Amino acid sequence: xxxxxxxxxxxxxxxxxxxxxxxxxxxxxxxxxxxxxxxxxxxxxxxxxxxxxxxxxxxxxxxxxxxxxxxxxxxxxxxxxxxxxxxxxxxxxxxxxxxxxxxxxxxxxxxxxxxxxxxxxxxxxxxxxxxxxxxxxxxxxxxxxxxxxxxxxxxxxxxxxxxxxxxxxxxxxxxxxxxxxxxxxxxxxxxxxxxxxxxxxxxxxxxxxxxxxxxxxxxxxxxxxxxxxxxxxxxxxxxxxxxxxxxxxxxxxxxxxxxxxxxxxxxxxxxxxxxxxxxxxxxxxxxxxxxxxxxx
Length: 296
Prior knowledge:
By secondary structure, this protein is of the alpha/beta class. The chain is built from 10 helices and 7 strands. Helix 1 (22-36) packs parallel to helix 2 (53-61), helix 5 (135-149) runs parallel beside helix 8 and helix 9 packs antiparallel against helix 10. The protein is elongated and about 85 Å long.
């Protein structure tokens, strides 16, 4: 069955200072959705733009019932914009689509064909993925996230995805107001065993403006990943630390046996191993309680 013809989609487009790209993005997005033939609405969130983005969007929205505009009085962040759009959405499925012109509308049909079988269908960028200087940091974060959730993640923060609204709202109080919302929501879905599908896409090089993703966002994302694991699967994080202290204890204990003298270092490492492991067990139980409360 072709899911493209039976679903309704709320498309959320966050915008901040995209005056050179946003009109073309909205026109091509509207035309492609009409061509595909699904029920849709487009929700544009102007996140306190300082250029003429607001005026351009207002002109586009005029006379179009299927296009809505939400204006933030100041810049709240990409995550805050996505959450505002989700709260205003009328339909069961949410599609996020960046307003900078990098995403290609022809890939929408590639994601739509998996809707219904998955809770989240996320685009995974291939080929050009942004400035080369960011790639080492992205690869490290992707490796770390993949290890922590025990799932090979090809792209942790692409802003082009389709997600079931009910599943998205299940963890909305955990989502940050920054760009890290994409990573946080993805990891929440994976750790809770929801069905996630990655679809390879190509993106355009950014032709205008500049990316709002800063180096500090990578650090924030890394700490958010660790926070999410502490919430959803603490032992995945704690066990390696406990194992490391146990190895150090074992080495120190062997040397103490040879010297026939038990040192304070060996005792401290043994106690640390036990305490870290028990701390992990407690965190795991607290995480289970928290997940139960979220699900309610």
